[in-house]
# Entry
Amino acid sequence: MKKGIIIGASIGNCVHVAGVAHFLNLAQEEGYETIFLGPAVDTAVIENAIRHYKPRYVAVGYRLTPENFIKIIPSYIEMNNRQENKPIWIFGGTYSVAKKAKETGLFDIIFDSTEDIDECIKFLRTGIHTKENENEHNSQNVVQRIAQKRPYPLLRHHFGLPSYKETIEGISQISKSKILDVISLGIDQNTQQYFFRPDMRNKDMDGAGGVPVSSKEAFITLKKASEYGNFPLMRCYSGTADVLNFAEMLVNTISNAWCAVPLCWYNEIDGRGTRKLHISIEEAQSLMRWHGERDIPVELNEPHHWGLRDAHDTISVAMSYISAYNAKKNGVKDYIAQYMFNVPNGLTFSMDLAKVLAQLEMTESLATKEFRVYRQVRAGLPFLSSDADVAKGQLAASTQLSMAIEPHIIHVVGYSEAIEAASAQVVIESCKIVRGVIRSVLHGNIDYKQDSAVQRRKKELIDDATYLLNFIKHVYADKSKDPLSDSAVLTDCIKKGILDAPHIFKNDEFRGVLHTRVYDGKCLAYDPKERCFLNEKQRLFRLTGKEII
# Structure
């Protein structure tokens, strides 16, 4: 159903039409009928068009000097006053001209070139364009907010400084900038592990890795600091102890937008907690069920943890499937699949994309009407340089690559990642860099996915990951009805090296026998004795002496 007619033109002596034309293209996609009158259109042409088409909106642009603009506007005001059924007037132009446009009183809606595409889309969908607080127009539900902004992705950024006071001030500054949709609260490890056990906190470690938060009231205050600008959502990673209590506390204090929890980490194998591996898996599954019962989305930030520890690409692809499988099995309805690009370090962009496409295809093979999958992308943690200028370029490059999979959410990584924790200003600047990339590629990006080398590698990875999954199901068939969601099976797979990474904590239980190397832009399993690369069938046979058909 058409929403109405929009007439567009550049007025007076202005021949610059790109802005008007692009706005009309967006309007067409949103269901409007559009009529473009052309460049340097005078009042008579616009008046005739208004009388003939009876438009809902008249959108005009002027990108020359403000002084000339002031001279031509009176004739348009007089013409509009003659209309019995006046349309709503929209202006778009440079910042200096837009200031003068506001003074004329003719224009109901003014775009001053500081806006991004998502603000234009929001106006076309809601009829609302304001610089004031917009809580009532921006959903506080992440799934609804995704729908409000599609095809523009939500922007999320991690933020938490060692100083609680500076974190509050930074959250307010970021919110007022309206630059992102989700503030991902970065809490310190004391908070993550000892929130409900304050007597175990080492005060000397307060602020290590994020903001120290010692009470529910302190979380509520952090949330209130975000209630400005475009009212961004807030979320926080799960605790590494007392996980269900921590989850409930986050929902009740910051309205946690979604739960993020790893399946196999934050425990004895990475040192980010003291839990035994099988217990942490079971607690992660309990968290999935708890949030699923309350219709709260869940993200398993799992696959990239293997890549960060130099596991070969097949492991990351298989763990993408296992993560989504466990979420679905445990009642999650809205699943946020995170795809971290640029890990392990050394992957070429083409082979990195192939890996993510394999992850995506296997993950989304589980999607149904009852299990909805949303794509979240991010640059890799070890990818960014400690030279800030170089890192800015890398952030932009990684964003362009990740836009190839049409993400619902971009987890922006601050360009200062390799230097220091991101300040509010770095968060804002990093989001602007990402927005600049999105603006350039959202409509008509190069389709890197169709590259023949990318497609070949994607197929290789899907074949190898499928073999690994089938191997686990076959080997453990007599021990479990559902091996891929069985905590005992997954624990045993890690202990035996079926699921492995070179840099897990090695001890009597966890072998960490996997060797990998980056070759030809891919991270591959490697046999150092034979000095050869291994596909998954070869790796598993050398490890266990077993193979499946």
